[in-house]
Amino acid sequence: MKIANNKVVVMHYAVMDSEETLIDSSYDHQPLTFIQGTGFLIPGLESELVDKAVGDKFIVDVDADNAYGQRHDGFVQTVPKSFFQGIDDLDVGMQLRAQTDEGEQTVIVIGMEDDEITVDGNHPLAGIDLKFDVEILEVRDATEEEIAHGHVHTEGGCGHEH
User: What is the pTM of this model?
Assistant: First the structure.
């Protein structure tokens, strides 16, 4: 069976930057399981999976525009420390959920000075070309329920109320 929209795909992957520095890998733990065509993966990787089958092993180069996008300087902001009341252990590197004009998004604390905190709303991999080493382990039809819910169900369902 070949990968197409509404197929459940189980795969191992390793992702590296353009200098082949390992960023993440599933080879040491559980493989990634998702429904093809739901936007779960970055566009550049998802499009390369079409028509692949169990046992296929391949390398995919994905430029930043088809991965996590380009970095935007406007996504880095310095705000008053008072915006973070109630967070006692605020520290550089901490990821937080922030309310923005575009809705809720993750920001990373990148600087702290006296009464000001600098946060970066860019994805940590924004602006980086990526290389994926992929192995397809399983391909099957998604169930109607999985398609309706937009994610793969494990044994015992997914925990949604029926």
Answer: 0.81
